[in-house]
Each structure stands twice: as C-alpha cells, then as structure tokens.
Design a protein that fits this description.
Elements: H1 2-9, H2 13-32, H3 46-57, H4 67-70, H5 73-88, H6 90-100, H7 107-117, H8 125-155, H9 157-172, H10 196-210, H11 213-222, H12 231-254, H13 265-277, H14 294-306, H15 319-333, E1 340-341, E2 344-345, H16 348-375, H17 380-391, H18 406-421, H19 423-428
Antiparallel strand pairs: 1-2
Helix pairs in contact: 2-3, 2-5, 3-5, 3-18, 5-9, 6-8, 8-9, 8-10, 9-10, 11-12, 12-13, 12-14, 14-17, 15-16, 16-17, 16-18, 17-18
C-alpha cells in the first residue's frame, strides 16, 4: 500500500514520511477541536488544537493549555495516541501491523523503514521493527506498573493505573505531556522532586527511549560484550553517560545557592539528575524552570539542542552529531588527517552531514528567535529557551508559550515539526535528488578564519 502511494503521487521516501506526519497532525487537530475533547464543552480554536496536536505528534510537550485542566478523557486519549504514533513512527507501527497480518513487506517498504529508523541497512529491518514494538510495550508496561504503584494510593485504582500508563508512554516517547494539573496548572512533577520511584521510572524511560532503537538491537544481540558493539552504540552510550553525569554536576554547582539552597543533599542529587536527563528531550520538570539561574538555563538550552540519539523517540541534533563535530575539530587542531574514535575512522560524509545538521538547526532557532522578538515584546532569555525547546522537541518552557501570538505559534509549530522529522530531511525534501555531473570546475582557495 505504501509503495502504491509513492508511485501514484511520485513522492520520495522523505516526503512520504513527512506527509504521514502532516496527515497525523491534521487528524489530531480535528479531533481536538471537537467539543467532547474539552472540559467546558467549547470548541478549541484551530490554531490552539494544531499547536497541541503538533506538539504531541512531534513528541515535544510545549502546550498552550494545561493537559489535565483543559482536555477531557477523550482529548487526553487523542493526545496519548498521537504521542505513541509520533514517538515510534507510523511507518514502524504500520509495518508491525502488516507483519502480524502475514503481509509481505516489499523493497520499497523496507527502504521506508530504513529511512524512518535512521538505519544503514535494509536487511533485518522487519526483525528490528518487531523488536522495537515488543520492547516498547515491555518498557512502557513495566513503567506503567511501577508508576501505578506510586499513584494508586494517592488517586485511587482506576485513575492511578491510568496515570501510570499515560506518563509511562509520555516519558518513553520523550513527549513531556503530564496530567499533574490537578495539583496546580503546569506544575509537572514539582511535587515529586524527591520521590525515588517517580524519578527513577521517568528518567529510566526517558533514557531508554532516547538512546535509539539500533542501540537496543545491538545490546540485545551482543549483551555485555563491549568489543562487539557497533561504533554507533559505543558513541551513544559514552556520550549519554557524559551528558547525564556531567550535567548533574553542573546543575548541582549552578543551583547550590538558588533552588537547591534549602534542600537536603539527597533531594539535591535527585533534582540535579532529573534536570540533566529531562532536556534530552522529555520536557518534564521537578523544579520551577522559570526560577533556574541564568547558568542553568544556558546549560538546559545546550542539552536541549543536543537532544537524544539517532533512530530514537528523542529530538535534537543528536549525540552522534556532537561527537562527530568534536572529533573533526580535534583532528584539525592536532593536524590529524583522519577523525578516529574507538579505533575506527569516520567517513567524510558523516562529517559533512553533522556540520549541515548543526548549521540548519541553529539557523532555524535563530530565525524563530528573531520572529518572536520582532512580533512581540518578550524577554530575550525566555524566547531563547522557547526556540531551543521547540527545535529540540523538548517541551520545557519558562511559561512564555501561552503568551505567544498567532504568528509566533506558527513559527514554533514549524520548529517542532522540523525537529521531529529532522531538519536535514526537511531541507533536502525541497532540494531534490543529489546531482553528480562529470564536469568539475577548477579549484581555487579562499581565506577562512
């Protein structure tokens, strides 16, 4: 069916994936506009519903309405569905459903799977999809049970179980949507800052969902044999550990005289660890984001810009991109011809792609910042935070989201969409296929730097 659609409308694989996200967002928008989706029974505006549907589908978490206060159970279930499909990808879910029905997946479908999961090989793609869906159900189910153990005594059996499922899916998909508005609008998990179960489960799901499906497959295949891992797995695990523990230490130092001043050392460690994990790119918070010091906000923006890893539920420029850029800079400064890590040499195309991804994402963020500042009189720090949160599909906010006008919301919608489908894929969808000609012009040097 997918191949027939491609042939009929003459779409590239990248454009077809983008079209799927657009149709999913529009369907979610229409459902959220229904009066049955809101608690007051009034129809939500098209722009408000579009913003929310885009945020859910692109697993961002930026909201213009508090999820618990504004949406009914029907509206919340629509959001949960968009989060699950957007997190795993409709190609993955569709392929798994077809495989259960015994349908064969052709070469075109396998190529779509490769592109949607950011894999390098077509071989074994169906097996990978099955592992992804089964692993997702396992981790989300386990997370839901553990969270329900915490929420049921407080909220009752039915509501506690529902809260466990909703937040497990939202955390695993790095979406950042929460139902804690009954404790105060937009409060997120601030009332659970020192709760071990809530912290461990949410952070565990965020990290597992954000390291990437290829890393899952490698870990499941080779277990604890580090030497047998792919280079991708080694880089992702190393970068993830450095960012989490390095970020925790920096947050402890930055907030020691601010938000952490009246906390015990145990509470400080929980809060700092959560602050380091959630920008990668979940969007929950256990402390008041707006009250962070300037240093902590800058650190959060850096983590949001980096994001998770390729082929995962997370956004951002990805950990591997940062590592590749760092290795290239190191090799150039030390006059090394090759970029090497873990006794492997990186190919030149990876360096080019990493440079382009960083440039495009940073340019999109700057464009959004200019539009938001020109269109409204908003604090610069809040606008910077909002833009990097949107392009990284994080969802953390200082509260400025609800103050944005129509133009600013449309720009944030574009950033969230680009952040989910990939800024490079989005840009290349307008440039056509790569052209290689036999004629090459003479080379001439220019002065750089």
């Amino acid at each position: 069916m997918i191949q027939m659609l491609r042939q009929r409308v003459h779409l590239s694989r990248t454009k077809l994936i983008m079209l799927g996200f657009v149709l999913l967002i529009l369907a979610g928008t229409l459902l959220l506009m229904l009066p049955v989706a809101t608690r007051d029974g009034q129809e939500t505006s098209f722009l408000g519903a579009l913003f929310t549907a885009t945020s859910a589908t692109c697993v961002t978490g930026l909201v213009v309405y508090d999820t618990w206060t504004h949406w009914t159970l029907f509206g919340q279930l629509v959001l949960l569905t968009l989060i699950q499909i957007g997190g795993l990808g409709f190609i993955t879910i569709g392929t798994f459903a077809l495989s259960l029905l015994g349908r064969k997946i052709g070469l075109g479908g396998r190529e779509l799977i490769r592109d949607s999961l950011s894999t390098q090989q077509i071989r074994g793609s169906i097996r990978l999809v099955r592992r992804i869906v089964r692993g997702t159900l396992l981790f989300e189910g386990l997370g839901a049970v553990l969270l329900a153990v915490r929420f049921v005594p407080e909220l009752g059996l039915a509501r506690g179980c529902y809260y466990g499922v909703f937040h497990a899916v939202s955390a695993f998909c790095n979406a950042g949507f929460d139902l804690m508005g009954f404790q105060g609008e937009y409060s997120s998990f601030c009332n659970y800052a020192a709760d071990p179960i809530v912290n461990l489960v949410l952070m565990g799901l965020i990290v597992i969902g954000g390291i990437g499906f290829l890393v899952w497959d490698d870990l499941l295949t080779h277990r604890w044999h580090w030497r047998r891992y792919r280079l991708q797995t080694k880089v992702v695990l190393t970068a993830t550990a450095v960012l989490i523990f390095g970020g925790t230490l920096l947050f402890l130092l930055s907030e020691r005289n601010n938000l952490f001043a009246d906390m015990s050392w145990g509470e400080r460690i929980w809060a700092a660890l959560f602050c380091a994990v959630t920008p990668r790119t979940a969007g929950f918070n256990t402390v008041d984001t707006a009250a962070l010091t300037s240093g902590s906000k800058v650190l959060t923006m850096i983590l949001m810009f980096i994001g998770g890893s390729p082929g995962s539920t997370a956004g951002g420029i990805k950990t591997t991109t940062v590592v590749v850029i760092f290795l290239y800079i190191r090799s150039y400064l030390f006059s090394n011809e090759d970029c090497t890590i873990f006794h492997r040499r990186l190919d030149r195309d990876a360096i080019k792609r990493a440079s382009v991804v960083v440039f495009i994402n940073f340019s999109l963020a700057l464009f959004a910042i200019l539009v938001l500042l020109i269109g409204q009189d908003l604090p610069l720090a809040d606008v910077l935070f909002e833009a990097f949160s949107a392009i990284g599909t994080v969802g953390m906010s200082t509260g400025v989201t609800r103050e944005l006008n129509a133009l600013s919301r449309l720009v944030i919608i574009l950033l969230m969409f680009c952040g989910r489908v990939g800024s490079l894929s989005f840009a290349m969808s307008f440039t056509g296929r790569r052209r290689t000609g036999r004629l090459r012009y003479p080379e001439e040097q220019i002065i750089v730097g």
